[in-house]
Prior knowledge:
About 35% of the residues are buried. The chain has a single domain, classed as 3-Layer(aba) Sandwich (Rossmann fold), CATH 3.40.50.10420. A hairpin with a 4-residue loop joins strand 5 (about 90) and strand 6. The protein has helices at about 5-25, 35-45, 75-80, 105-110, 130-140; strands spanning about 25-30, 50, 65-70, 80-85, 90, 95-100, 115-120, 125, 145-150, 155, 160-165, 170-175. It has about 180 residues and is of the alpha/beta class. The two termini are about 20 Å apart. Strands 1-12-7-4-2-3 form a six-stranded parallel β-sheet, with helices on both faces. The protein has a four-stranded mixed β-sheet with strand order 8-5-6-9.
Amino acid sequence: MSRSVLGERMSTEVRAFSRALSERGVRVRETTAAEAPGVLEAEIEPPAVGATLDTVPVDLADLSVQVTHDPTPQELDDAATGITDAVLGIADYGSVVLRGGPEGAEPVSLYPDRHLVLVRAADIVQDMQTGIGAIADSIRDGHRSHVIATGPSATADMGELVEGAHGPRSVTIVVVSAE
């Protein structure tokens, strides 16, 4: 695939992803890998906890804002912001796929009121079918647990819509491009 066709495809998927996220009340920030640390620093509300970021070239230990790794249950409970990366974005739904496991991404994404998710622009696919195929590839590679998340936690089973009932009240997605 030529560079211009690849860039156009990614741009189209990023636009669709951003539009779907906006429709769900999710804030989207687009940035480059070089500028991602500054964007994160501006978005973090301390105290913050973070999982190891495997898919984006950002080291949370290098930020000027303290981010606790491998948090205790009390640090998770006290945290205002949780930071994870996503292995995949699904444009049609505005969903992100978080890889679960012993690294601690799931608690970091669920306990704090605010969830910051980094996803590479190159890892955004158009539809759920393509996303499920990518998850299947990841499972075959040994990563058994994945969570598909769409927007902030919400429930309406008790009457009015309540956000943050069993997860974050707000979600910000940071789309990281290579350039």
